[in-house]
Amino acid sequence: MGLECCGVSLPDPNGLVPDEAYEFIRQNFWTTIRGSAVVIACIACVYAVALWRIGDPHWWHHGVIALLAVALQPCFGRQASYRSFIAALLLLILTCTVSIAVLALAYGPAALFHALLLAYTPVLVTSGRMPPWVKVVLVAGACLLALWLDAASTARWVQRAATEPAQLPSAETLQQLRDINLLALGLAPAVLVHHFFTLVRRQHLAMTRLALHDPMTQLFNRRHVQATGEALVARLMDRPQGGPFSVVLLDVDHFKQVNDSWGHEIGDRALRHVADLISRTARSSDVVARWGGEEFLLLLADTDEAHALQLAERLRMAIAEDTLVTQEQPVGLTVTIGVAQSLRAGSFAEVIRRADAALYEGKRQGRNRVVGASAMGTQARPVTDLAS
What we know:
Layout: E1 3-5, E2 8-10, H1 20-53, H2 59-71, H3 82-107, H4 120-124, H5 132-163, H6 171-212, H7 222-238, E3 246-252, H8 255-262, H9 264-281, E4 287-292, E5 295-300, H10 305-321, E6 335-341, H11 348-364, E7 370-372
Parallel strand pairs: 6-7
Antiparallel strand pairs: 1-2, 3-5, 3-6, 4-5
């Protein structure tokens, strides 16, 4: 339902956001069908060769199925329409089902052709568009069809054994076909499970990246820095002989004026510009993050305050010298930086507090400068901070 404000009907905000979960499931299903079609083509080629070797005149039917499965691949692609996808899927299922029925009636229940119908069930349950009850009906239908075909092939086999026993395939032929069908029944679920394992792992990595990165700057976020900092503190306590780590806390000067003068779009560009400069100036081993708002943080492992101050000064100069270019006119940016080194008995929060106090001192001194915590007291930052 929509919303109303001052008598005006507004669209539902939930309807303006695409359902990413549904789209992910839909794309997974389409990818699964595309992979299943490749498996069908490979198995059909095996059947064609096997039937040709035993002299079955229907071997070429499976060659046609293999070509059909390959030819329908564009219909299972991301750019295909839903109607073409469903039409291609139904055509492939119908063709395979007819072929399975013909072979089951020809070679009887011992060859297990009827059991191939059960290979449909894992694919059916991966659809994201069908409701659960439809999936239950389709899976039950596939199972019932397999049972009916088993009974029909058994009756057909008994009839042929009574009327034309000489025309029945040999036990060796039935065993070969049975082995191929068992291989196909084992291959299909294995491919499907591997496919879903790969997709779930890929989605997990994507979700992890979203959870640990800032969406605007693509830097690490506060959560990741806190977890990494606490791990460094724990390592320092476990290995007292190890080197200290340092925190570089950086704040863009007068950022509110940038937003007020140029608008939030330019303000966002300014943050991305600063983030890019920090990433290019920092070392590959440094953890670079957006701490919040216009504040950025660098976590420098195995680095004392003296070396951290040198890096912080390079950062300050790089940002001050690289003007943000806009359509109106260049926008100059400067930063104030506070640096603090870890203490043997201190927590990560304590290191942050000391770096924050040094940053405040830098702002008090006039901004656009680097201040180390060791060069001043560890006084706490006042509640009423200077304007950013």
